[in-house]
From TrEMBL:
Location in or out of the cell: Cell outer membrane
Segments forming domain TonB-dependent receptor-like beta-barrel: 393-771
Protein name: TonB-linked SusC/RagA family outer membrane protein
Entry's Gene Ontology molecular function annotations: siderophore uptake transmembrane transporter activity
Record membrane topology: Multi-pass membrane protein
Amino acid sequence: MKKRTHISRVRFLLVLIFMPVLLFAQETITGKVVIEGTGEPAPFVNVIEEGTRNGTSSDMDGNFSITVSSLPVNLKVTALGFAGKTVTVEKAGDITITVSESMEALEEVVVTGLASSIKRENLANAVATVSSEELVGTTGQPTVDGALYGKVPGVNIVSSSGAPGGGFALRLRGVSSINGNNQPLFIVDGVYYNNDEIPTGLRAASGANRGNEENSSNRLADLDPNDIENIEILKGASAAAIYGQRANAGVVIITTKRGKGGKTKINFSQDTGIAFIMNPLGLRPWTAESVEAAFGAAERARYEAAVNGGGLIDYEDAIYGETALITETRLSTSGGNDKTKFYVGGSYRDEEGIIKNTGFDRLSIRANIDHKISDVFDFSINSNFVRSNNSRSFTGNENEGGLSYGYTLAFTRPWYNLFPDENGNYPNNPNYPGNPIFVRDQARNEDSTNRFLQGFKLNTKLFTDDRNSVRFLVSGGLDYVANETFVYVPETHQAQVGGQEGFIAVGKNNITQFNTQAIGVWDHTALSGDLNFTTQAGITYIDIERNFVNSQGADLLPGQTNVDQSVNQTINQFLAKEKDFGYFGQVEGNYKDQVIATVGYRLDKSTRNGDPNEFYGFPKASLALNLNNFDFWNIEAINQFKLRAAYGETGSPATFGATFTSLGATNIGGNGGASVAGLRGDPDIKPETSKEFETGFDISFLQNRVSFEATYYNRSVDDLILTRQLPASSGFTTETTNLADLTNQGVELALRADVIRTDNVFWNTGVQFYKNVSEITRLDVPAFAQPGAGFGTGLGTFFIEEGQPVTQLVGNIDGVLTQVGNVEPDFQMAFNNQLTLFKQLDISFLLQWKEGGENLNLSKFLTDLGRTTPDLETPEGQARRTSPANAARFVEPAGYVRLREAAIYYNFENKVVKSLFGDNVQGVRLGFSGRNIFTITDYSSYDPEVSVNGGAGLSSGIEVTPFPSSSQFYFHLNVNF
């Protein structure tokens, strides 16, 4: 005890002796960080002594003070949104450091794990990043998925409906499932975001034979694209493996806008626009002779009477010819101090449809708050409330229910007047069991959604020294969707009289989705200082509950719109509960920014697997070599030359209920009971598993003014889950189980260049190229037409066959099953440009080119039957109509060139703004823009982007009377305070 006390006294004495020497050896640097061009202070900028962990940050007024061991010294200056720089300080005292704002700086960091990120220059995967400016900076964007068109190589987007509120099928690197989900996992500020298409019961009113033909929008439409700061797209398994069983179709990570320290800023934006049908088909150019040839002499007389009495009626224009008004108002404020930063924003979008009584409106309110409790604890909360309403009317497939406009227009002859008389009575359509004017005015197909998202993140810094930093992160969120649907067909509708005598369906649909994760992260610098490790490990949990209740009634009392006022009532309920649990770990090593390697592993179990307690493993590994950082590199013109390679696996469990044999209700002799349904469950079913190898290189030169990225990937999806037919002797009809494998191989290229970069002229251009080829490599059953993905081999369908593309279309041609088309494009390209003149005039456009790929145009099949196809007066049209009505007759090339977006904006000079509005207004911007401005295509219908099957499964390339796409033009006003 005495010896220990003596040693302590000696240490204390030595500290007292040498303390003045230590203090004398240190130097203090004070200064201010300001923004280039404005001279405004730059708060919360990091100022770090190079090669050490010694650092500080500037305060609200941009002031800082740092004590260093000796001079001269290099100070590294970094901050989000500003270009980093290194400043050499020769002597102590006051200095001024100028930083420049940079959009590129926002994109330098990319997510690589559930709680870590990496500089893009060190990334070993082709992860695409889309900034807020790229997403919504050009024109008005109704939905997030629609805003991504042409902006990311490796992403194929197909519209499943031109209705307001969208409806899109988004595919990353090809088809990843046939029966299951092909949409990527969406994560918004750490919250797993539900993107379901919720059924409405429409098929029971119209006769549509499948729920995926109800023209529903996907719920990503609830997210306001203007709230987004940036999007990171993990396109393949090699990048998304750390997300496990939910990531088989890729992952889209969305980060919304957050507050920045400093003066509170307010932004107001107003968009006003119009929309109209993009490509009207027009009337068949009828003549008296062609009418008589088609329908006989009596019909010719009616035609001539109509022509003499006022002319023919263009029902396409009557239904699809509205000029729709679009308005969107946005107001946001952001700011904060060194402890708390906030972003609060609200928007309201009201979009009419090109069909009367259709439209979409969305009210969104968001609050994002970041707070630093202490040097140890900080947290973030994200809250978003959305109220959206949608009226989509009746389009798409409906099997002679007399409701779908495309069906009725195909058979309606323009010399019959179907408008109501002076008493409001609508005449029956003599050509088809439905009057489209009556449906437009009287029938309803609507839904409304209240949605609340709450995310949270708590970060705890457990330990920090010169070489180690350990932190613990807890995060998660809640996504609650309360959706109501309403379908109503009056009892006076032509097809309802003598049939259902009116129809009503009311849906109450709730989705509760909760996710959480707990993660430990250890950053370690090896003794040499040249090698850094980031290690993370944690657990994740996801809980999803769906409760869809649809109450339907037929035989309505006159004028009633309640289910309880109907005679025949049925209630359908769908209940689903899913739970996933997983462990994961990842280690990332970085040697001098020269060699960057990552290995990781994810273990997941899910209640959707055959054994809900069995864990499945998903590994990942990647390697990046920055050759330009090696000592031997001496090519000064090339700023970066990186070689990269990665491997990863992801999974996708079976759809809910596939593991169990369900029971069907029976009623025999008045006694209720249950019987075994025709579908046999498979308790041994395994998740589909993607295994992907990716390799490529990135190069940039001429001071990063030109960059090029090239990627090749090979992705196999093993144990595909399919439904097969069973012999009657088994007691069942079908079974869903693992039966096949497929591969996707592709190339992604992206070129970006600042062609001109001067004080008065800035021109940036980019070209993207994407090609994917798929093949079924194993099939344990005979080739078959995929159920629910077409209309049989008579009219054409997707056909699952070993050795063939998963996207092939097959038809029965003269008794032989023949591939008649392939909906997968040969390649896709995008060409985008941004031009700024004198720092005031911004001009931009996006041109998209899709080469190859075919569609099955069954809308033309219907118009040929009704003899209303516009080209039937031509020899080609007549020859087609007399040819056999098989799939080959209706397959058409679906390539196109489209001016997707274009805009011109004027930014008023600061001195003009201040002279007109005073010092409170910081900027004013006016602009004019357009979407879907023109399309060059050989496809004969409204839009070569079609999907009658919604956004799930094999959902592109088959058209049946869609809601036509529209062109949109906007006027924009933006004011910053």
